[in-house]
Fold these 4 entries.
Entry 1:
Amino acid sequence: MGVEIKIEHLTKSFGRQTIWGDVSFTLPAGEISVMLGPSGTGKSVLLKTLIGLLKPDHGSVMIEGTDIAACSRAELYEIRQLFGVLFQDGAMFGSMSLYDNVAFPLREHTNKGETEIRGIVMEKMELVGLLGAETKLPGEISGGMRKRAGLARALVLDPEVLLIDEPDSGLDPVRTSFINQLFVDLNAQIDATFLIVTHDIHTARTVPDNIGLLYHRHLAMFGPREMLLSSEEPVVRQFLNAQRVGPIGMSEEKDADELAAEVGMDLPPLPPIPLQLEPSNGIPRRSQRRPGEWCRQNGIVPPPGSFTDSISPSAVGV
């Protein structure tokens, strides 16, 4: 079972440069959340802050009653054992086999014998579809396989929180679809709290229970997937629908002339909200909401065509 992470008034700077300020949101226990944002908005910095690799200037990160932004080294070490991390490039040791890479955390952080370690490693490698590849070196396999090997290593200590940094980086759309399905299937099996940092809009629209968007040194919005996918807030609407019209420009913010030129322009309609990915076995995850549930509960009319594969338009208030 995953744990809840409560972030309150978090601020981080490097010298005079503020990365983001007064960030507050809660990662619900056992749910999949995605954090989006233009390049340079501090998404990876946020992951490092959540695991205590970076100290915030202000604010708190509460996990099971402990504020990791202010706790002792010993407390931080204990809390970190709740986490598994999938780094952007897999972060494999190039001279070690996949088996030894996956076994590394068990050998470093537990007193388990090699027989028990082998059982755990093979279980996790089977979970990510890598049985038979355990003797290969990271340089002998594809980028997608390295991602899966990194995921197996992140899982060997049975984490309650899984942090995933740019899982689609370097992957083609087909492999990205496969790894997205793997995340959904894993969440159904281990019930951990997932936070995925990504630029991939398809991932954000179909995988998570919750979406957040970092923009211009603050958190623009965080909430249930359907809330953001039906939002008319300019930054959220523009980013989640990959549109050119809006406040985001090539250098993050558009200048006054660019914004003035867009005055009176018709915004493209919001696209339909797609169905959320389901586990491969067809059994809904514990945290998975019924399609259209958030819209219905909050009196929001979703874009035309939303959820049409599963429920009628009248069921969601169209």
Entry 2:
Amino acid sequence: MVAQGGVISTSSCFLSLPRHCRPSSTKPPRLALVAMSDDPIREWILSEGKATKIIRISPVGGGCINLASRYDTDAGSFFVKTNRSIGPSMFEGEALGLGAMYETRSIRVPRPYKVGALPTGGSYIIMEFIEFGVSRGNQPVLGRKLAEMHKVAKSKKGFGFDVDNTIGSTPQMNTWTSDWIEFYAKHRLGYQLKLARDQYGDSTIYEKGQRLIKNVGPLFENVVIEPCLLHGDLWSGNVNSDKDGEPVILDPACYYGHNEAEFGMSWCAGFGGAFYNAYFEVMPKQPGFEKRRDLYMLYHYLNHYNLFGSGYRSSAMSIIDDYLRMLKA
């Protein structure tokens, strides 16, 4: 996750763990003197990007997985992320998600331009550079525009996405599935629980989580669930505003799912009452929303446990235990 516009995002949702990401270096990048054909980023900017010269390349801080840079040119600015160890598939998933959200013409996202492989290994993505404003956006406007995206962007294929992608750096499986409960149980909670067992030997959380998965049906009684396009990783670091104060969302982990799953990162997104009121004016609240809210948070707590360690285990276990008591499972 990385910020654009030179803004470094911070959030209290992350614990102060040694393994947590640190802001990327603010030292200027060294510009290698290479032929244009050896630098596909420059090559694209100076051809399809319609620039005739690159004025400067500046680092953009805030990244913990990828390096980010701003390319200023005589044709405008571009935002570029690179990863020296991961192939193009990660950025291809991001580009497809950004493209899908961009096409809804609802909430502003950076327009993706190009994904490719680096000659020395790794990959890159070039996208629109958005100059951020001074605030994180108007909460009611954010709620309304997010709901508009959920309302207009539906899938006839069911729940999932055309490609697998990542949530942070964790693989996210998006195999098309006709039933939401099955999809969420297998490709979201089930995958994370198995990862915790394999990575930490945590058989307790795995076994209790499996019991929960098998008993979640009552939480969805009398609920109409449509496959809506979700950003998928909507926390405060991925929400900002442009210079006009319009909300901008970035760094997605998109898939088509139950719209309520979008609020799974609400524990560190800062959504208030004004946000939810505006959202539910467009997408009416379904029966039992409050009972399902923690179920969707659980996926992200498990992912943080798997990414950053045991500091997040107790939150995940508490949610599982509460649901097992509620469902008498």
Entry 3:
Amino acid sequence: MMKEPHSDLCSSYIKIFVVVSCYWIVSITTVFVNKALLSSDSVALEAPLSITWFQCIVSFTICFTLSQTNGIPGIFKFPKGTPWNIDIVRKVIPLSIMFTLMIATNNLCLKYVGVPFYYVGRSLTTVFNVFLSWLLLRQTTSLKCIMCCGFIIFGFYLGVDQESLLGSFSLLGTIYGVIGSLMLSLYSIYTKKVLPSVNQEVWLLSFYNNAYSIILFLPLILMNGELNVLWNYRNFDSTYFWFQMIIGGLCGFAIGFFTSLQIKVTSPLTHNISGTAKACAQTVLATQWYNESKNILWWTSNVIVLASSALYARFKQVEMEENSKKPQPEEEKSLV
């Protein structure tokens, strides 16, 4: 019997809801765990890139184990593939470079700024999406969407200004946040292009990204001067230290998987908007968790960024619906 369209639509919505919910839970948990790893006195390891590198090792180990066992019997089958195929390396390595820089700058930003400001510090992803679409693809953007980007930039500036007045502003952390926003934008756009090269398999993409990142992180660790820090660190024999590191690695694996999965079942734009909305909830939780008091203008900056991002998403959705109704020339249809 043929399934009813309504039933298929409900199934799609349920799937998207579950994926987005998992992304929110894992992402928020990962931020708090990483903040503890990067800044807490219990760890006290001033080597943020080495911590991120270890998380990639944990993720790679999980993927490698699953690839050898063909997944978990009775639950799911891990797709076959190897990251050491020269053709795969050539196709995926550009995305892996973006992935490496994205998670590196995200953790560096998180090290130097507080969790409440982490959202605003990385709120320029939508702006970069518009700019890169024009720069790389020569795609124009409507005036309404450009105005939304202007408000996002204003909200970002206001947040930076208020963070400075409150005495908790970090210029270095903010710079890393801006770079992280740029890398996230590039990664989201390029993921859609690379997924067909791995047969639309998110597991394989996560496997390959982490495999290549283990190598790509080594020169970054050297340039950041972390070898001397690791050599002089005295808590490598601590069970609690390794417990925290492994938990952080598991979270790193989960966020990488659910980020790619959310992009796959939605779109790069929806992923960015979901990340913005998630970060708003994360900000509220963080202020309560760390007992931080913020003024009205600080909260206003968060509201401006969130509302502008939501309006941008709505305007883009309407534009795409209108464009889909326009008749296409035969030559464009053949290209599609």
Entry 4:
Amino acid sequence: MKTYHVLLSLLFIFCLHCKEAQEQSLETEQGSISAEKYLEPQKEDQFLGGIKMIPIKTPKGEFKVWTKRVGNNPTIKVLLLHGGPGMTHEIYECFDGYFPQENIEYYYYDQLGSYYSDQPKDLSLWDLDRFVEEVEQVRIALGLNKDNFYLYGQSWGGILGMEYALKYQEHLKGLIISNMVASIPEYQKYSDEVLAPKMKPEVLKEIMQFEENEDYENERYLELIVNNYYTEHVIRMPVADWPEPLNRGFKHLNPDVYVTMQGPSEFGIKGDATLKNWDVTTELHKITVPTLTIGATHDTMDPEHMKWISTEVQNGRFLLCPNGSHLSQFDDQKVFFKGLIRFIKDVDSGAF
């Protein structure tokens, strides 16, 4: 009888061990969160699939912005700021192929004016300071704080991320500045003096003729830009091979937001674009939170400048995507996600 009870005890312990091992199947460097827990639906998810429309107060009234949560990790929550301005969260759908298996909770988010959010027509809303306040309202609504909040911003989203950190970094656990320099004049200089001379002279001449005539909507102009500039410095793939989420994002881009802030040119920031003179190079030293800057060899942005940013902030790291361009989450995926995930986990575990 005593032997029987011993066997039962051993069997119970063995089964308990198996259950614990199964729950820890998605073990990560900083600890473990079970697959069941990570994918555990919240009550509203069972009806809305993680989507939350967040009310945003602005000087021109209240509007709603679209967000969608994926995963459940109390110490890692990444809010994704898309580029454009006026682009959409869709260009980050490839994150689904990397973040879930690493137990990283993340939020898709369409900024005000972008396709899945409200799109008011008042151009005065497309203002950098207002967008910073919008991000802060989104943070509060999602319950993000210094113990879990990672802010990822790419391109225009990188501008927004830097400005947010300069005002609200006490709420951040980590900051990622992806494919964005800290100065629009420096970006324009790099475009004019480094990237432009790399183009075929006859192609550059024709593009600049359209630029001088401000004929930005000419189909020939767009054809030249896409096939000679985008495929070299925005996404290094033939146009026919561009990922469907990217094509969908371009289709959904809001030109009112884009032109107001970025300007009508696809070859830099020109005209009376509101971001034309933006520059925070002298303020970067104020950023104290762990910061990752991501650059790419073939980017529209100078990778050396992005490396420099990592040395100007107080706790920086630089990731270079050697085969990537402006959208290196697509054209240099393995390097991009390996470095991004490592940074998030290093910060979370205290190893940064």
